[in-house]
């Protein structure tokens, strides 16, 4: 059986990264043929930056496929109101795939599934094989994947976001909705906390607006 013990696998949310760079100021670039290249340029820059800064043992990129997913089959209105991907951006997806092929980085995509599903599957598989996963994504939905073997790397902030940070953010957000801390039900936090953090014996001492909580 393959073992990834002691190894780190970095998975890039390719679609999310390309889309983010596409809308960034100052990325209106074209090549000699007049084709838009700003998003592709930013993608290449960021992927190379990840290689240098994180030096993962393995690196791969997850792509959405240009096809309906199983979610659309279950619920036809799924993302029905989402705007179509701009033509100038669609063209650049092919450029990014060509770059990844040239540098030997796998581009993963599965018809019927989203890049999010690829991220989740890789994270679970790597964990089962004893390795650690870094998810390079700004998508907050990926936070549900955080545990002691899976972390998120925020490219723009150049920092990691891990399970303990998620737990603290959740508790702060929860408390911020109540002005009278004394009326909080302890079981509310106690019940949901295990679904947020899976690390054993994690204790958070939080002081928020003068109120202290220990979980």
List the defining traits of the structure above.
single chain, 215 residues, alpha/beta, six-stranded mixed β-sheet, two-stranded antiparallel ribbon, 8 strands, disordered C terminus
- Which regions have little confidence, pLDDT < 50, spanning 5+ residues? 185-215
Shape: globular
The strand count comes to: 8
Radius of gyration: 20 Å
Proportion of residues in extended strands: 15-25%
The SS-based structural class is alpha/beta
Q: Care to describe what's here?
A:
- The chain is of the alpha/beta class and 215 residues long.
- It is 40% helix and 16% strand.
- It is globular and about 50 Å long.
- Helix 1 packs across helix 2 and helix 2 packs parallel to helix 4.
- The protein starts with 7 loop residues before the first strand and ends with a strand.
Structure in a nutshell:
By secondary structure, this protein is α/β, with parallel strands linked by helices.
Secondary structure topology:
Blueprint (H helix, E strand, L loop, with lengths): L7 E6 H9 L15 H17 L3 E5 L7 H5 L12 H17 L3 E2 L6 H14 L3 E5 L13 E5 L4 E3 L1 H14 L9 H11 L8 E4 L2 E4 L1
Parallel strand pairs: 1-2, 1-4, 2-3, 4-5
Antiparallel strand pairs: 5-6, 7-8
Helix pairs in contact: 1-2, 2-4
């Amino acid at each position: 059986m393959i073992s990834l013990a002691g190894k780190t696998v970095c998975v890039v949310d390719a679609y999310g990264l390309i889309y983010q760079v596409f809308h960034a100021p100052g990325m209106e670039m074209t090549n000699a043929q007049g084709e838009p290249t700003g998003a592709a340029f930013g993608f290449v820059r960021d992927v190379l930056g990840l290689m240098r800064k994180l030096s993962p043992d393995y690196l791969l990129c997850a792509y959405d496929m240009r096809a309906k997913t199983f979610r659309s089959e279950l619920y036809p209105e799924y993302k029905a109101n989402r705007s179509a991907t701009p033509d100038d951006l669609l063209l650049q997806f092919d450029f990014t795939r060509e770059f990844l092929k040239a540098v030997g980085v796998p581009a993963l995509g599965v018809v019927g599934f989203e890049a999010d599903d690829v991220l989740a599957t890789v994270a679970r598989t790597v964990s089962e094989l004893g390795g650690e996963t870094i998810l390079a994504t700004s998508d907050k939905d990926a936070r549900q994947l955080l545990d002691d073997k899976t972390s998120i790397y925020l490219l723009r902030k150049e920092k990691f976001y891990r399970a303990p940070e998620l737990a603290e953010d959740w508790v702060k957000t929860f408390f911020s909705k109540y002005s009278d801390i004394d009326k909080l039900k302890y079981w509310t936090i106690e019940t949901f906390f295990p679904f947020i953090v899976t690390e054993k014996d994690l204790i958070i001492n939080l002081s928020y607006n003068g109120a202290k909580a220990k979980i």
